[in-house]
Amino acid sequence: MKIENIEDLKKVREEAKKRALLREGQAEYKVTVYMGTCGIAAGARQVMSALLDEISKRGLNNVLVTQAGCIGLCDREPLVGVEKGEEKILYGDLTAEKIRQIVAAHLVNGQIVGDWVVHAERR
After folding, report:
1. CATH number for position 40
2. Looking at the whole model, is its pTM more than 0.85?
3. How many Cα atoms within 13 Å fall on the side-chain side of residue 15?
4. Could you tell me the residue range of the domain that residue 95 belongs to?
5. Is 76 among the domain residues?
6. Is the residue at 3 inside a domain?
7. Residue 105 has what DSSP assignment?
8. pLDDT for 77-110, tens place per residue?
9. Helical spans, DSSP H, in the chain
């Protein structure tokens, strides 16, 4: 990213802080939006946009949002993974509205939204 003004510098700083939170164990949740070609075609960009918007509206600073490529479940795209400690939940068949509900239920209240879970694991 080319830094042209103070806003660009602030964005770089915020991204660095988010990465540091995860490394230092201070981010409670890591949310991954799978943005492979199949995910994008199914609406992953809209899901990512709604996710970031909802996190911002709620002032959640304990969430690190990342993106990754295809994980091979193309028929269940868009997919989003939510990790907390040793627990990882993979949600599928998402829309912007569903991800807003997941933020409210899972990231704010700690309640997994079972209707959209594709896979759950403990490490």
Report:
1. 3.40.30.10
2. no
3. 8
4. 27-122
5. yes
6. no
7. I
8. 999 999 999 999 999 999 999 999 999 999 999 9
9. 6-23, 37-42, 44-58, 96-102
